[in-house]
Design brief:
Two copies of one chain form a homodimer. The first copy, chain A, is α+β, with helices and mostly antiparallel strands. In chain A, 17% of the residues lie in helices and 36% in strands. Chain A has a single domain (10-213), classed as Pnp Oxidase, Chain A (Roll). The first copy, chain A, contains five helices and twelve strands. Strand 11 of chain A pairs antiparallel with strand 12 (197-198) of chain B, so a sheet runs across the interface. Chains A, B: This is Pyridoxamine 5'-phosphate oxidase family protein.
């Protein structure tokens, strides 16, 4: 567990609900290493655009990828972007509607992305993205061809500037509301995997690999 | 089911993977009415900020709320924002790494938010947000006091300008790769509820209401 602090900047210091701020870097890594997709924010023609996409992490670098034809990725390297990963952990049901809330862990990363051109880093970045979504596949599926690599953009964002915010635990009601005849507590929420669905064109005799079956 | 088309604007017409675009308004409603949180994009000091938050929908208006003290909400009414709701439905495991993908449904809404000041609309917006996260609670939990209402900002965004993108089904591999000895298919992903956890301070004898127990 890294205990290197997150580097506070004006916009990553939480002003509200400060008790929810986490300032150790390991909390950032944990959130990023548990997610499947992020929400990437870019500014296009002066207005924000928020796009769900895959991502991966190597040390203090976050990688996202896309087609070289995607407008949002083409615009990105010249300007700052924001990458947010959120885990919704529960719905907090208080006695008062005003105190309803959610339990969550979220990481927000700011940075000017770097277009990755070094072939080794590009491959490593793609591997990190693949391993995040589909651990084990890098070693079993067909690797990218040079043509496929050329059709793929990989962007790297430093994790230097990031904030982490979490909420956990039960509701916090006003003192006088604890006497109310209202159920209160937390409804846990989590992401779950179903049973793998084989491709109809799967060749007979190929079993579901353990790394996929084991997630279901 | 509404068959009113989504109104195409330059930025909501998909240029890539057009087969994934949905152009009927009912697809937008379905995605919004199934989500628990959205990712709200705002521009702060010229750079994007992406924040997870609750939301609700009434007809063609989307509502988000927050403390009147939140900087991102204070900045929002003067500028365009982006609201994205994403459902991750599966991890698409192709024979080639290049064709790995995800099944998903996502809605992206653009608009200049309106600060809701009309008391009736403000209450209706809060109710829509509450019902999205915690159906049934509006009728059982304590309603907001005037002081609590004053401490809460509600923003309304028109659903006029929105795009919907979905992917479903199995992998699409290159012809020559179907002969490979690699398992291919989809690993379904869904959001699931756990067993309700009562607040330690819950008064004895209050059972879990059916609307909460029924989701687990």
């Amino acid at each position: 567990m890294s205990t290197t602090p997150l580097s506070p900047t004006d916009r990553t210091i939480l002003r509200r609900n400060r008790a929810r701020a986490r300032t150790d870097r390991s909390a950032l890594y944990e959130i990023l290493d548990e997610g499947l997709i992020c929400h990437l924010g870019v500014v296009v023609d002066g207005t924000p655009r928020v796009i769900p996409t895959a991502y991966g992490r190597i040390d203090d670098t976050l990688y996202v990828h896309g087609s070289t034809g995607a407008a949002s990725l083409r615009a990105a390297p010249s300007q700052e972007i924001c990458v947010t990963v959120t885990h919704l952990d529960g719905i907090v049901l208080a006695r008062a509607l005003f105190h309803h809330s959610v339990n969550y862990r979220s990481a927000i990363v700011y940075g000017v992305p770097r277009n990755v051109t070094d072939p080794d880093e590009k491959l490593a970045g793609l591997r990190a993205i693949t391993e995040r979504l589909a651990p084990g596949r890098w070693d079993t599926a067909r690797r990218p061809t040079p043509k496929e690599m050329a059709a793929t953009s990989v962007l790297a964002v430093s994790l230097e500037e990031a904030s982490v915010k979490t909420r956990e635990g039960g509701p916090n009601d006003d003192d006088e509301d604890y006497a109310l005849d209202v159920w209160a507590g937390v409804l846990p929420v989590h992401q779950a995997f179903g049973d793998p669905v084989p491709d109809p064109r799967l060749r007979p005799g190929i079993p579901v690999p353990p790394d996929i079956a084991g997630r279901a």
